Each structure stands twice: as structure tokens, then as C-alpha cells.
């Protein structure tokens, strides 16, 4: 990677970066912003501090320079910045944003709220009834092109400046505005209907008089809302009560953070213990909640009950919250609303939709400015040649209006109609069924992309885990040998006596480190090599016990909001048909489903025990003594269980190989097998166990409880006690689980990489999972190194880690959201520059806001076009921030696909969407735009020649209907038929994705190609006008007839010259236009002499002029194709 990139401390720019966690930002600024840090460069290496090496850079490259502001700056674009700043200041003053505050919310008493909180309505509309017309007009006239047409059309109301008829200027402009307004109105109505549907959803609200139904939009802060199973949570709430006996429930958060894993939420203990639902109104209680924040993973608050003696205080954390846009997955829940509408976490993390403008439109806008400059220069030259006589200023403006066809208004109409037709073609493509174009203004963007930012869960993967491999050290079982495991399990549980002996043997096989225990005589016995059958039995039992999975039986779901009756538990039949597993990780569900498939089934679980059913139908009960949940720091989870029948205590643990390798007994196969499974794209888990005596467990329990009560360094003390247990564990097995990739993800990613598109994976998932998917999907190739950016929390750490990364070459980067935030805080420019050189980047643990922030950074630092693709509500901000947003309709709902510019049904469709439709849209629009400009420039050249010959008179060459007909019925169909042209067949574009690289360079529409068209227009316009002037005999009307007919024929031949692949509609358009012109000659006696145009002289003169204007261009095209063919023509030949 470029060693030349210096690392310079950059002061934070608060307006540029939105941090999603105010608390973290404050912490960083407190620790890492000493006043002299910018002046004192950081060392490059830790050794440098001792050796006093000058191994650092002091070049102030990344600093924000203060530009000198003069007249040049103002003319170039400073006026825009100044106007923007004034408007922003005015908006801030008039429409001051309400400050978000912490609040006290009384249960069931919205009227007690001290402040007025926002309504709970969802609003995705861009305009309202009053702002629609001004808003649409502003969006249209902010483009130079449209503003120019408006000024020219308005000038025709001044008699001195009037040239021709009013309708020749106002009709096309009115048509463009009408089409735009209708299109925007249809989009707005659709958005309104979608919002209305969401806001009209009914919920049960608990009042003193009982339940009443309220609309989602009428819910207020303080309301007690009942949410049934599979119902969307309408606002941010504190979880008070559930119908589940355990006092907890599962929720699906896929629309919030993109993870389809179910999250466990716990009800407030005080309210869950109340005898009946109505008692919520008989107590006097309130919730204190912190001010609304962006961070969806944290919450701080308190629950207080005042009417008890003493007062009950409960601290509230993230596990007591139910955020809006999540879905209840089990039971019925009751919550008190604390944040509504714009203050909910989901809305705070969603950016407002913006009008996207394509790069091609911006390039054409620049070209029209150049044309306008040329038009003004031409008008000044004409007036100068007149000698600035008389009212020259009026003449100057008349010339500007006269040459206004140099920028044709039909450019806007043709391009808009072209975009609509591209959208129609995309939706009608049978190879990508179900594709929907929601934003018809940017199909060309699909052909210019350099960065593709993709979500992981549901986009690249199906989020369906399948158990693939069990490795016991000496023997490995795959999907085809699972029946062997099943027979071993059946055999183990069919012989209770042998099973007991095996378990005793297994206990003794682990030598105890405490000789004073009663098990000492056994542990001194020599180790007995266990049979394969007993090892399989132990491994399967460990997988069936060590997890956080809860089985749920659909038949016992309650709907009345009350707790289920205890009698239901007694006659529970544990039948397989209605059992469903719930867990916060799909990996764990996959493991438990697999143990069920081999004969050991988890049938029941609560907070203190779990029950397994053997193949023979016997129920085994295990008491859960301790549970150690999985954390991203420990990378492992453990459980201590006591078997009901024997009283044996066993500590089971499973986790990532990096975490488990050091705590299991010595072995020579674990590392190698983990590597083998990872190369297959499997997610690995190492499973181990340790048998504990009663004394060992009692000693541990005492120390563990003591550590949990300590006030200082609680987390450290607790982990130290647990670690004392995590020594010399007996390694049981290694498991391999596969996260099913979407169909054809690997070839699609390879196709995109070959097309020169850099792919970044942004996910809310864990680092290990993200890395595993990056490898299995071939986002990172097998030969590539992966640099995992370690956790950094301050500027010094970030600097050292960036330097370590800078020395790596051609490696993929994996970074977490927290580390990314620190890097962007201090070294934004350097980080982006280094990351952009990586072949692939994986950002894990990203919040929705961070995803959008990364898109903004790439747009800002690279000036390349970005595309974001996702399928969940958490991807909406990213999709809306990107130049081109693609949504996938998947398991996570339609939120992303509705917010996106393009909606597809499968990830593999993106290949054809970009390579074929993106290519065609861009190539066709570039050709169409330049041809329409050529059509305007050729007639303006003829006007200039005509005026210069006739003493620089500001008189139009063609008037009235001739001008309108020229840009409509005579040439419109052939020119517009260019939208059917294609340079490469779809099969060829997909076979050679390298062709896509040329498109990103923008060579199809550049100042070079534009200049070629200008020269063609000047040559043809000059030939046609001078030819007509040389050949006219007696009357001026003959000049008009000859030149106009030759002009129409030239345009039709030029369209034919530009077409690369003929379509029957193109041929029809050519002959239809020619037929329309010939037929209309009979009615144009106001402009043409009918007696003259039927003579042979007219025919030969017109033919001669047309041949002279077109033949050289045909010869040049032939020679170019012969000696310097473009890359695509080499392939097709």
C-alpha cells in the first residue's frame, strides 16, 4: 500500500461527521484532545518512543486549508455557497430544531408529561399540499438548462425581442413541466398511501376502563400498549409485562439492525409480578428515560414505584426496551411508550429521502453551460461585425434568442422519455424477474459504478444455518455420515448401564488438580481410551446442553395478555409438530436442530432447568446452575449443569477456536482442522467440558457471587473467577456450520470484481461471522491476506494501527464500527485513502448511521459513483445516501426495497442489472444527448451563416411550424430510436465484464466527444447553408426549401450512421419520419413553392448537398472501424 501516505492528525469537523453515540464522542474528546496534540506529531512505532527515532511525518497534507476568497472564487461558485449559507441560517432561525431531553413518563398517564412530544406518525413524503408546486418547480429550475429555457420563453413577451410565435417556446417547456409534475405527483400519492397504511394499523391500548383500539399514529408517550405476537411495535417502549411465564420474550429486529436473530427481552420485574393486567393502574409508578439517541444498542433509565414502602427502584437497560419497527416473536407484550414519532430510534437512524441526480445529467448540464457561452460569444461577434450600431444591446439579446436552438429544449424531453423506456426495459427483462424501477431519473448510474457497498445478512447470505461437519479428532462426520452418529446415540441411550459406566469413565479421564477431593482414587487410575461411541455421545450431549435456545410450542400461545396457566405445563406433550426454537443466534438453533435430528431433543427450557428427550422417549432433566453468555470480547459461552438423576455437575463451554485453543487440554489436530473448515467457508465452534465435584463448584460459586457484588472493577473480577474454571478443559469436538449463501453469490461477486467494481461489506454482525462470509463468498480471494484492524479507542492507538496497516500490501481490511469511528474522528483522509486501495473492505458491527456515513465519505473523497445494496430497514439510510440504491425483497421485509431506486428479488440479478442494463442506459443516453445537441447546433450554424450573409440581420431562417416540426415529427422518432441501440450483445457483456471498466471513465460523453460533434455540426451546417445559397436561383423561398429538406435528410442519415445494432422499430422510425415530411410538403405552401419542389432541379440539388454533408463522415467511420476498432467490436467480430 502507498508508503507515501502520511498520517497527520486532523481536527474533528463537527459538521462533516455525525457520530451515533454522543457519550462515546464526549469520551474521546475528553481523553484525546490535548491542546498540543495537533502540533506534536505522533510516533510511527512504539520503539520510537525509546529510541527517539524521527520515524514520523509532519507534512500537513490532510489539514483543511483556508482558501483565499476573491472575485474569481465568487464567480466560479462562491455565490452559491454564500446563498446556501444565508438560506441555512434563515432556516435555522425560523425553524429551530427542538432540543431532545430526558423525560419522566408516568405509567398510563400521558397527560402528566411535562412537555409535548411528537406525533407517532410515519411520514416519507417529500412535499405537502402547499409545497408541491414550488418544490417541483425549484427542482426543475435549479438546473441551468431549464432555467435558460424559462428566461428565453419569458423574453418573448417583450415585443422588441419577439422572434417567431410564442407557442414555439412555451409549448415544449409546458410539456416538460407537465410530465415532471405528473410523475412526481404519482410518486407522492404512492408514498402517502404507504404511510397511511402504516399509520392506520390498530393496537390495543390499556386504559382504566379496559382495552380500547387506537391507530398507530394516535399513540402518545405514556400510553400502555398491548402488542400481540407477530405484530410490529409502533413506538419505543419499556417492556412491563408479558404472557410468557418466564417474564421474557423474543423480538425480531431485522428492520432495525439487519440481524434476523431473535433478541431476548426481559420485562420489568416489579410489573411482571403484579397479579393481573389491570393492576398496572392501581400502582403509582414512573419511568425515567434518557434523552432520545441514535445508538440502538444502549439505553439507560430507571423504573420507580412510589406507592410501596420502601420505594421500589429498578435500573433499566437495553434488555428492558422494545424499539419501534421490531416485531414481537413470542407471547403478548405490554409496554409503556417513552419515545414516539421522530424521536424513536428507527426514525433517528433513517435519513430523509433526497432527490438524486445522475452523473450524466450533471455532465450534460456542464456541456449546456459551455454551449450557452458559445451562444453568447457568437451573438457578441454578430453585433461586433454590425459595428455596435443603433440599439446594439437589443440586437445582442435578439441574437441570443435567435441562437437559442443551440441548446434544444427537446434534450430534456428526450432524456426523460429515454430514462422511462430504460426503466420499462429493465422491468420487462425475463432474466431478472420481479425487478422494479422506483426512481426513473438515474438508470445511467448503473453503468458508472466504482464502489458497491453491500449488507451481509439476507443480501449475500440467506441467514439459514446448516450443520455440516462434526470432528472428534480421529474421526470426522459429514452430512452423508450423520446416520452413523444417530445409530451411536440410539445405542448409547438403549444401554443405561453402559452409559453410566461411560460417564464415570469420562469423569475419571480428566485428572483433577485437587488431591483432597473424594474423586482422587479414581483420578489416579490410568486413562482409558474412550470408544468412538462414548465420545460421540458426550459431544452430542454437550451440544444439546450448552446454548441459549428455548423451545416454543405454538399451541400454548396466549392472546389475552394474561400469563399462561400453570396447568398447561403439566399436560405438555412436547410433540415435534408444533415445536419451534428461539435463540439470539441462528448458529445455536442449527446445532440444537442437528442434535434433534440425531436423536437427542431439547423439549423444554426455563431460567433454571432444561429437559432433553432421548431416542427411547425418556426425559432427562438438567438444572442450570450458572450460565456465562457469549460476548464479543470473550468469544465463548459456557454453562454449568447438574444432572437430576446422578447429581453430576459438568461445566460445558463452546466458542471460537482463537478463544478455546488456550484453555483446552493439549492436542495436535484442532488448529489444522479449524483451518480446513474455514477454507470450506464453515463457521467453526470448539466444544469442551470439565466435570466438577460438589466442593469445587461450591468454592467457585462463593467466589463468583462475591465478585458480582463488588463495586470496583466488577467485570474484571468476575472474568478472573470464571477464568479460574477455564483450565485444562477436555476437548470434545469441533463443529462446522454453514451459513447458506444466496444463489450464485460467488460468480456474481467475481463478475463485479472483474468489472473493476470495488466491493465493501457493511454489516451489523460479529467480526468472526463477517470474516467467515467474506471468505466463503469469495469476496476475499483465497490467496489474499486479511488485515484485521484491532480495537482502538484513542488517537495514539489509531495512529499506530494505521501505520501497521499502511505497511501491508494488497490485503483485505476487516474493521469494527467502534475502531472506524475513532479513525474517522482523527485520521479521516488517511484512513479513506488507505482503505480505497484495498481490494475488499469488511466493516462489522456497523450502525445504520455509520453505513450511511461510509457512503458519504467515499463520495466525498473519491468522486466516484457509489451503489448500496441491502434488504433490511437498517440499510435504508445507506441506500438513500448512495448515488444508486438497490433494495432486495427478502425475509427482512420490503422496507429497503421500497426506499431504494431499484428493487430486485435476488443478489445475482445485480450482475445483469449493471453489466447489461447499466451499460445500455449510459451508452444510449450519451448518444441521445449528444445527437439532440448536434440537432440544435447544426440549425444554429445555418442561422449564423444566413445572418452573416444577409448583413448580420437578426432575422430567423426558419419560422413557426418549421422549427417546431424540425425538433418533433420530422426527426423525433429516428433520434429517439437510439434508445434501442446496443453496442454489445447482453451475453457478450456478461461474458466479458472487463468492458464495464471503460464506462466508469466516462468516455462516451466527454468534452472530447462533444467537440467532435461541434465540428461535425459546423461542417454540416456550413455545407447545407452555403450550398443552398449557391444553388438558389430567383427567390429566397427556394433557399428555405432546399436547405430545410437537405437538413431533414442529413439528420435521418446521421441517425443511421450512429446506429450500431439495427432494430425493426429504427427502420420504421426512419421511413415514418421521411413519409411525414414528404406528406406535409403539400400543406407547407406558406414556406415552400410547391411548383419548385416537384422539379428535377430541386431533387438533384438536395441530393448533392446531402451527399457532400454525410459522405465524408461515413468514410471516416469505415476507416476508423477498419484501423482502430473499439474493444467491444473486436469481441463481437
Layout of strands and helices, then pairs:
Blueprint: H1 22-32, H2 47-51, H3 71-94, E1 103-106, H4 132-141, H5 144-155, H6 167-199, E2 202-207, E3 210-215, E4 224-227, E5 236-242, E6 248-252, H7 254-257, E7 262-266, H8 269-272, E8 285-289, E9 301-305, E10 312-316, E11 321-322, E12 327-328, E13 333-339, H9 345-348, H10 359-386, H11 392-402, H12 410-428, E14 436-437, E15 449-454, E16 461-471, E17 476-477, H13 482-494, H14 496-509, H15 520-523, H16 532-545, E18 550-553, H17 567-570, E19 579-582, H18 586-597, E20 601-605, E21 609-613, E22 619-628, E23 636-643, E24 649-655, H19 657-660, H20 670-679, E25 683-692, H21 694-709, H22 714-725, E26 730-741, H23 745-754, E27 758-762, H24 767-776, E28 785-788, H25 795-806, E29 811-816, H26 817-826, H27 828-836, E30 840-844, H28 848-862, E31 865-870, H29 876-881, E32 884-888, H30 895-899, E33 902-904, H31 909-949, H32 961-967, H33 972-976, H34 986-991, H35 995-1000, H36 1007-1031, H37 1036-1058, H38 1064-1080, H39 1090-1093, H40 1096-1123, H41 1127-1132
Parallel strand pairs: 15-27, 15-31, 27-30, 28-29, 29-30, 31-32, 32-33
Antiparallel strand pairs: 1-8, 2-3, 2-4, 4-13, 5-11, 5-13, 6-7, 6-12, 8-9, 9-10, 14-33, 16-17, 16-26, 18-19, 20-21, 21-22, 22-23, 23-24, 24-25, 25-26
Helix pairs in contact: 4-6, 10-11, 10-31, 12-31, 13-16, 16-18, 21-22, 25-26, 26-27, 27-28, 31-36, 31-37, 36-37, 36-40, 37-38, 37-40
Amino acid at each position: 500500500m502507498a508508503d507515501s501516505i502520511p498520517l497527520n492528525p486532523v481536527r474533528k469537523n463537527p459538521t462533516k461527521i455525525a457520530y451515533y453515540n454522543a457519550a462515546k464522542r464526549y469520551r474521546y474528546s475528553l481523553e484525546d484532545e490535548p491542546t498540543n496534540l495537533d502540533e506534536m506529531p505522533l510516533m510511527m512505532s512504539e520503539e520510537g518512543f525509546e529510541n527517539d527515532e524521527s520515524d514520523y511525518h509532519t507534512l500537513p497534507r490532510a489539514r483543511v486549508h483556508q482558501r483565499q476568497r476573491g472575485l474569481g472564487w465568487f464567480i466560479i461558485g462562491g455565490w452559491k455557497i454564500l446563498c446556501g449559507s444565508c438560506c441555512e441560517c434563515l432556516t435555522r432561525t425560523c425553524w429551530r430544531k427542538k432540543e431532545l431531553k430526558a423525560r419522566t413518563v408516568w405509567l398510563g398517564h400521558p397527560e402528566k408529561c411535562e412537555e409535548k412530544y411528537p406525533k407517532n406518525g410515519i411520514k416519507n413524503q417529500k412535499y405537502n399540499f402547499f409545497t408541491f408546486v414550488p418544490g417541483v418547480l425549484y427542482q426543475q429550475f435549479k438546473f441551468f438548462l431549464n432555467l435558460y429555457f424559462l428566461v428565453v420563453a419569458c423574453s418573448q413577451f417583450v415585443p422588441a425581442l419577439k422572434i417567431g410565435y410564442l407557442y414555439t417556446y412555451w409549448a415544449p417547456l409546458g410539456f416538460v413541466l407537465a410530465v415532471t409534475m405528473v410523475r412526481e405527483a404519482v410518486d407522492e400519492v404512492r408514498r402517502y398511501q404507504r404511510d397511511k397504511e402504516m399509520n392506520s394499523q390498530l393496537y390495543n391500548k390499556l386504559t382504566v376502563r379496559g382495552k380500547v383500539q387506537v391507530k398507530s399514529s394516535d399513540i402518545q408517550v405514556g400510553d400502555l400498549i398491548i402488542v400481540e405476537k407477530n405484530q410490529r411495535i409502533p413506538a419505543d417502549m419499556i417492556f412491563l409485562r408479558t404472557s410468557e411465564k418466564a417474564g421474557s420474550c423474543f423480538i425480531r429486529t431485522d428492520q432495525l439492525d439487519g440481524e434476523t436473530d431473535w433478541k431476548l427481552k426481559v420485562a420489568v420485574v416489579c410489573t411482571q409480578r403484579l397479579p393481573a393486567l389491570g393492576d398496572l393502574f392501581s400502582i403509582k409508578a414512573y419511568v425515567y428515560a434518557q434523552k432520545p439517541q441514535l445508538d440502538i444498542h444502549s439505553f439507560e433509565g430507571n423504573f420507580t414505584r412510589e406507592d410501596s414502602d420502601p420505594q421500589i427502584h429498578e435500573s433499566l437497560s437495553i434488555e428492558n426496551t422494545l424499539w419501534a419497527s421490531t416485531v414481537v416473536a413470542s407471547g403478548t407484550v405490554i409496554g409503556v411508550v417513552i419515545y414516539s414519532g421522530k424521536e424513536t430510534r428507527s426514525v433517528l437512524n433513517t435519513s430523509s429521502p433526497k432527490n438524486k441526480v445522475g452523473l450524466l445529467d450533471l455532465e450534460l448540464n456542464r456541456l449546456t453551460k459551455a454551449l450557452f457561452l458559445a451562444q453568447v460569444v457568437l451573438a457578441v461577434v454578430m453585433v461586433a461585425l454590425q459595428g455596435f450600431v443603433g440599439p446594439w444591446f437589443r440586437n445582442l439579446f435578439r441574437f441570443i434568442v435567435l441562437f437559442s436552438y443551440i441548446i434544444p429544449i427537446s434534450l430534456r424531453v428526450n432524456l426523460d422519455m429515454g430514462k422511462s423506456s430504460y426503466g420499462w426495459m429493465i422491468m420487462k427483462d425475463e432474466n431478472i424477474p420481479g425487478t422494479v424501477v422506483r426512481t426513473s431519473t438515474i438508470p445511467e448510474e448503473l453503468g458508472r459504478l466504482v464502489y458497491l457497498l453491500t449488507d451481509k445478512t439476507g443480501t449475500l447470505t440467506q441467514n439459514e444455518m446448516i450443520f455440516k461437519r462434526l470432528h472428534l479428532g480421529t474421526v470426522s462426520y459429514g452430512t452423508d455420515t450423520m446416520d452413523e452418529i444417530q445409530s451411536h446415540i440410539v445405542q448409547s441411550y438403549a444401554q443405561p448401564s453402559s452409559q453410566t459406566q461411560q460417564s464415570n469413565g469420562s469423569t475419571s479421564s480428566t485428572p483433577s488438580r485437587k488431591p483432597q477431593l473424594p474423586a482422587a482414587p479414581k483420578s489416579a487410575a490410568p486413562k482409558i481410551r474412550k470408544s468412538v461411541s462414548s465420545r460421540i455421545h458426550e459431544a452430542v450431549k454437550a451440544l444439546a446442553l450448552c446454548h441459549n435456545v428455548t423451545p416454543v410450542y405454538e399451541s400454548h400461545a396466549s392472546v389475552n395478555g394474561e400469563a399462561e396457566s400453570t396447568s398447561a405445563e403439566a399436560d405438555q406433550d412436547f410433540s415435534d409438530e408444533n415445536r419451534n426454537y428461539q435463540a439470539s443466534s441462528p448458529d445455536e438453533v442449527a446445532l440444537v436442530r442437528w442434535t434433534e435430528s440425531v436423536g437427542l431433543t431439547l423439549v423444554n427450557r426455563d431460567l433454571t432447568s432444561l429437559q432433553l428427550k432421548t431416542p427411547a422417549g425418556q426425559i432427562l432433566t438438567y438444572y442450570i446452575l450458572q450460565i456465562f453468555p457469549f460476548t464479543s470480547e470473550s468469544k465463548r459461552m459456557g454453562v454449568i449443569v447438574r444432572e437430576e438423576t446422578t447429581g453430576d455437575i459438568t461445566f460445558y463451554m463452546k466458542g471460537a477456536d482463537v478463544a478455546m485453543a488456550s484453555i483446552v487440554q493439549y492436542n495436535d489436530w484442532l488448529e489444522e482442522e479449524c483451518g480446513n473448515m474455514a477454507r470450506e467457508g464453515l463457521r467453526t465452534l470448539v466444544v469442551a467440558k470439565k466435570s466438577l465435584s460438589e466442593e469445587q463448584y461450591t468454592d467457585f460459586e462463593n467466589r463468583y457471587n462475591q465478585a458480582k457484588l463488588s463495586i470496583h472493577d466488577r467485570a474484571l473480577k468476575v472474568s478472573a473467577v470464571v477464568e479460574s474454571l477455564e483450565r485444562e478443559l477436555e476437548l470434545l469436538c469441533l463443529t462446522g456450520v454453514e451459513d447458506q449463501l444466496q444463489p450464485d453469490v460467488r460468480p456474481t461477486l467475481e463478475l463485479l470484481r472483474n468489472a473493476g467494481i470495488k466491493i465493501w461489506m457493511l454489516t451489523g454482525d460479529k467480526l468472526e461471522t463477517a470474516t467467515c462470509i467474506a471468505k466463503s463468498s469469495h469476496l476475499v480471494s483465497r490467496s489474499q491476506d486479511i488485515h484485521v484492524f484491532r480495537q482502538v479507542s484513542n488517537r495514539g492507538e489509531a495512529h499506530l494501527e494505521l501505520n501497521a496497516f499502511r505497511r501491508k500490501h494488497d490485503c483485505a481490511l476487516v474493521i469494527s464500527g467502534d475502531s472506524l469511528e475513532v479513525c474517522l474522528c482523527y485520521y479521516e483522509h488517511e484512513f479513506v485513502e488507505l482503505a480505497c486501495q484495498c481490494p475488499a473492505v469488511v466493516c462489522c458491527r456497523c450502525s445504520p448511521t455509520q453505513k450511511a456515513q461510509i457512503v458519504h465519505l467515499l463520495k466525498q473523497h473519491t468522486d466516484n459513483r457509489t451503489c448500496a445494496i441491502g434488504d433490511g430497514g437498517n440499510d435504508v439510510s445507506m441506500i438513500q445516501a448512495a448515488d444508486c440504491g438497490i433494495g432486495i425483497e427478502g425475509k427482512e421485509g420490503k422496507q429497503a426495497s421500497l426506499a431504494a431506486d431499484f428493487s430486485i428479488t435476488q443478489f445475482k440479478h445485480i450482475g445483469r442489472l449493471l453489466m447489461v442494463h447499466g451499460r445500455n442506459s449510459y451508452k444510449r443516453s450519451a448518444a441521445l444527448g449528444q445527437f439532440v445537441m448536434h440537432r440544435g447546433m447544426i440549425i444554429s450554424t445555418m442561422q449564423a451563416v444566413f445572418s452573416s450573409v444577409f448583413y448580420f440581420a437578426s432575422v430567423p431562417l426558419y419560422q413557426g411550424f418549421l422549427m417546431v416540426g424540425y425538433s418533433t415529427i420530422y426527426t423525433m422518432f429516428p433520434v429517439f430510436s437510439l434508445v434501442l441501440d446496443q453496442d454489445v450483445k447482453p451475453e457478450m457483456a456478461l461474458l466479458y465484464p472487463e468492458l464495464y471498466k471503460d464506462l466508469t471513465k466516462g468516455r462516451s460523453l466527454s468534452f472530447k466527444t462533444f467537440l467532435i460533434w461541434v465540428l461535425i455540426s459546423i461542417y454540416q451546417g456550413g455545407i447545407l447553408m452555403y450550398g443552398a445559397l449557391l444553388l438558389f436561383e430567383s427567390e429566397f423561398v427556394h433557399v428555405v426549401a432546399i436547405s430545410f429538406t437537405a437538413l431533414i435528410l442529413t439528420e435521418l442519415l446521421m441517425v443511421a450512421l450512429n446506429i450500431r445494432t439495427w432494430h425493426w422499430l429504427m427502420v420504421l422510425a426512419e421511413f415514418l419520419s421521411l413519409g411525414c415530411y414528404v406528406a406535409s410538403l403539400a400543406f407547407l405552401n406558406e414556406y415552400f413553392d410547391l411548383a419548385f419542389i416537384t422539379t428535377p432541379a430541386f431533387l438533384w440539388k438536395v441530393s448533392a448537398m446531402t451527399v457532400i454533408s454525410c459522405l465524408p463522415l461515413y468514410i471516416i467511420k469505415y476507416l476508423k472501424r477498419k484501423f482502430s476498432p473499439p474493444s467491444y467490436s473486436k469481441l463481437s467480430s
